[in-house]
Design goal:
By secondary structure, the protein is an alpha/beta fold. It has a single domain (5-234), classed as Acetylglutamate kinase-like (Carbamate kinase, 3-Layer(aba) Sandwich). The protein is built from eight helices and eleven strands. It has helices at 25-39, 57-62, 67-91, 113-121, 139-149, 183-188, 196-204, 219-224; strands at 5-10, 44-49, 96-100, 109-110, 125-129, 154-159, 164-165, 177-178, 180-182, 209-213, 231-234. The radius of gyration is 17 Å and the shape is globular. It starts with a strand and ends with a strand. The model has no long low-confidence stretch (mean pLDDT 94).
C-alpha cells in the first residue's frame, strides 16, 4: 500500500451521476463502497466534497448577488453533500465524523485539527464541510489546506476523466493524456488541475496530487496501491 493517509476531493457534480441537478443515490452508494474497500485496508481517509451540483458562488455573482453572500451559500451546499455522503458511508458500516468550517453544532463538529487527526488515527472517515469557511476560496483550496493540516500523503482528485490531458478529452478526441507532471510543467502548460491558490499550496508543501477517474469501480483501490492510474503531479 503506497499511501497511508489520503485526502479525497470529490466535486459536487460527481454526485449528480446522470442527473442534471442534485444527488444520485446510486452514485453516492458506489462511492461509499469504493471508500469502504480502502478503509478496510487501514487507509486513513479524509474527504472534501464540492457543492456545484446544488449551488455555486459564481452563479450568484453573475445574477447580481454579492460574491461573499453567494460563496457562503455555496459552503452550505457542500454541507448538504457532506451529510449525504456521511449517511451513505454509514449505511455500508463505516464510522464517520463530519467537521464544518462554519459552526453548525446540531449536525457537525467544528473543524479542530487535533480532533480530525485523532479521528483519522482511529480509522474514522473524516468529512470536511463548508470549504475553508471563507469566501473567495474554492473547495479545491479547502482540500489542499485540510490535506496539509492533517499531514495527508497525497490529494486524490476524483473526476469523471482518467487523468490530465492536453485538452478536454470530452470535447477533443485528439487530446493526449499525461501520466506524470511536475508542478512547474503543469503551470507552464496552463493545465487547469485546481485553482491557483490550491495548486500553489500543494507545490509549496510538496503535497502530490493524483487526478483519476473515480467513476470506474476499482480505480481508487489501484491508486492506493501505487498503480499508475490517472495523472500524478508532484515536485
Amino acid at each position: 500500500m503506497k499511501y497511508k493517509r489520503i485526502l479525497l476531493k470529490l466535486s459536487g457534480e460527481a454526485l449528480m451521476g446522470d442527473k442534471n441537478f442534485g444527488i444520485d443515490n446510486s452514485r453516492l452508494l458506489q462511492y461509499a463502497n469504493e471508500i469502504k474497500s480502502i478503509s478496510e485496508l487501514g487507509v486513513q481517509i479524509a474527504i472534501v466534497v464540492g457543492g456545484g451540483n446544488i449551488f455555486r458562488g459564481v452563479q450568484a455573482e453573475q445574477g447580481g448577488m454579492e460574491r461573499t453572500q453567494g460563496d457562503y451559500m455555496g459552503m452550505l451546499a457542500t454541507m448538504v453533500n457532506s451529510m449525504a455522503l456521511q449517511a451513505s458511508l454509514e449505511s455500508v458500516g463505516m464510522e464517520t465524523r463530519l467537521q464544518s468550517a462554519i459552526e453548525m453544532k446540531e449536525i457537525a463538529e467544528p473543524f479542530i485539527r487535533r480532533k480530525a487527526v485523532r479521528h483519522l488515527e482511529k480509522n474514522r472517515i473524516v468529512i470536511f464541510g463548508a470549504g475553508s469557511g471563507n469566501p473567495y476560496f474554492t473547495t479545491d483550496s479547502a482540500a489542499s489546506l485540510r490535506a496539509i493540516e492533517v499531514d495527508a500523503d497525497v490529494i486524490l482528485k476524483g473526476t469523471r476523466v482518467d487523468g490530465i490531458y492536453t485538452a478536454d478529452p470530452e470535447k477533443d478526441p485528439s487530446a493526449q493524456k499525461y501520466d506524470k507532471l511536475t508542478f512547474d510543467e503543469a503551470y507552464s502548460k496552463g493545465l487547469s488541475i485546481m485553482d491557483m491558490t490550491a495548486f500553489t499550496l500543494c507545490k509549496e508543501n510538496n503535497l502530490p496530487i493524483i487526478v483519476f477517474d473515480m467513476n470506474t469501480p476499482g480505480n481508487l483501490m489501484k491508486v492506493i496501491h501505487g498503480t499508475e492510474e490517472g495523472t500524478l503531479v508532484e515536485a
